[in-house]
Amino acid sequence: MSAAEDVGGAPVGHAYQDLLRVARSGHSLRMEDREPWRIGRIDENYRRSAVLILFGALDDLPSRSPAHAEGVGRDLDVLLVQRAATLRSHPGQVAFPGGRLDPEDGDPHELVSVPGGRVSGAHVRAALREAEEETGLDPRGVEVLGALAPVPLPVSNHLVTPVLGWWQDVSPVDVVDHAESSLVFRVPVLDLIDPANRHYATVTRGRQTYRSPAFAVPVAGTDSQVTVWGFTGVLLDRVLTALGWAVPWDTGRVLPAPL
């Protein structure tokens, strides 16, 4: 029985196949093909890091958005964290779980086999380790499908490898260290693709304005709303588009980023 069949339902099974397709072509997925968003450049002393883009079957907290799409949008969510407002780097921003590679993660050039091909084992180990440290998830329940092309993150001088995962055996998650994160939450895909929740977020530095795709989404189980923008907003936009799950939205809607 496949991982998709384990969680049941045709739409979820189709979603797994979509994710596997993107994982297999992940290194062709580019992050800066439509709009400028990066401020600055990384230098030769950059650090390697990895983030976990983890999709799974929707939990018992449903989407608050109307049913704009049939199929996958109703049945999936993605794991996100909100960084603590006291952090020096990206304070208060919403992100995927992840962080720097540590020596214990091994040689980043050594490859391991996953369903989507061969990927850096060190990046996989870093993404899972950091996700466990930040959210408390059990990494044994995560099936790593593949990895996307590394993405420069100049503001912190990191080269980030997004690791694409399927939450085959879901475990409870919550904030582990409040000095690092203020929220750990799962966002229904339907809320992410809802056109009412989409806009561009902008940051102006001198005479230059940078913009990124953004998602204003409710936090399940609370009355709160957060904005996903910047690096994470770009990743979400590209991945949802590559999966074929995105729906048209008003690209003329532009709002200042919540700095």
Any overview of this molecule?
- The chain is α+β, with helices and mostly antiparallel strands and 259 residues long.
- It has a domain at 12-188: Alpha-Beta Complex (Nucleoside Triphosphate Pyrophosphohydrolase), CATH 3.90.79.10.
- The protein contains 6 helices and 14 strands.
- The strands form 3 sheets. Strands 1, 2, 3, 4, 7, 8, 9 and 10 form an 8-stranded mixed beta sheet that branches.
- 44% of the residues are buried.
- Mean pLDDT is 86; it is low at 1-7.
- It comes from Kocuria turfanensis.
- GO terms for molecular function: coenzyme A diphosphatase activity; metal ion binding.
- InterPro entries: CoAse, NUDIX_hydrolase-like_dom_sf, NUDIX_hydrolase_dom.
- It holds the Pfam family NUDIX.
- Residues 45-209 form the Nudix hydrolase domain.
Strand count = 14
Radius of gyration: 17 Å
Portion in beta strands: 25-35%
Q: What is the CATH topology of the domain at 12-188?
A: Nucleoside Triphosphate Pyrophosphohydrolase
Structural class: alpha+beta
Mean pLDDT: 86
Supply database-style keywords:
alpha+beta; eight-stranded mixed β-sheet; four-stranded mixed β-sheet; 33% strand; globular; disordered N terminus; NUDIX_hydrolase_dom; metal-binding; metal ion binding; NUDIX_hydrolase-like_dom_sf; manganese
Concise synopsis of the structure shown:
This protein is an alpha+beta fold and 259 residues long.
Fold blueprint:
Layout: H1 3-7, H2 10-24, E1 47-57, H3 72-75, E2 76-83, E3 94-95, E4 98-100, E5 111-114, E6 117-120, H4 121-135, E7 142-147, E8 151-153, E9 158-167, E10 181-188, H5 189-193, E11 198-205, E12 208-218, E13 225-228, H6 230-243, E14 254-256
Parallel strand pairs: 1-9, 11-14
Antiparallel strand pairs: 1-2, 1-4, 2-3, 2-10, 5-6, 7-9, 8-9, 11-12, 12-13
InterPro entries: CoAse, NUDIX_hydrolase-like_dom_sf, NUDIX_hydrolase_dom
GO molecular function: coenzyme A diphosphatase activity; metal ion binding
Cofactor: Mn(2+); Mg(2+)
